[in-house]
Amino acid sequence: MDNQNKNNPLHGIKLKQIIEELEIKYGWEMLGEFLDVRCFLFDPSINSCLKFFRKTPWARAKLEKMYLKLILKIETPDEE
Q1: What pLDDT does residue 79 have?
Q2: In this structure, is residue 28 part of a structural domain?
Q3: Structurally, how many domains does the chain consist of?
Q4: Nearest CA to 61 among 46, 78, 42, 41?
Q5: What is the number of helices (H) and of strands (E) in the chain?
Q6: Which residue from 10, 11, 44, 70 could staple onto 5, CB 3.0 to 4.6 Å apart?
Q7: pTM
Q8: Which domain holds residue 27?
């Protein structure tokens, strides 16, 4: 295992797992408030979210940061 993966808290966690855990804990409506993206706000589903976040790097980065903060309780530096 290289150093980059060893220090990455998301190593081994799949995108589907991230979405499912956030949806179970917060629900689609709350996720739409946290991150204003169409796949959370209009007819949400795991599959529509997977398609969107796989195609949209900026949104995936925000989703992963939200997961780290809300589920893993890891604070990340703001990069914006």
Answers
A1: 55
A2: yes
A3: 1
A4: 78
A5: 5, 0
A6: 11
A7: 0.86
A8: 13-70
3-state secondary structure of 8: coil
The answer to whether the CB of 59 falls within 8 A of the CB of 53 is yes
7 is a domain residue: no
What tokens does 13 get?
């966690």
Query: Would you give the distance in Å from CA 48 to the centre of its chain?
Result: 13
Angle subtended by helix axes 15-34 and 46-55, to nearest 10: 90
Q: Do you know the residue count of the chain?
A: 80
Residue 23: which of 43, 40, 8, 9 has the closest Cα? 40
- Residue 3, pLDDT score: 63
Domain harbouring 55, CATH code: 1.10.720.30
- Whether 5 maps to a domain, the answer reads no
Query: What is the pLDDT, as a whole number, of residue 61?
Result: 96
Q: What is the pLDDT of residues 36-78, one digit of tens each?
A: 999 999 999 999 999 999 999 999 999 999 999 999 888 777 6
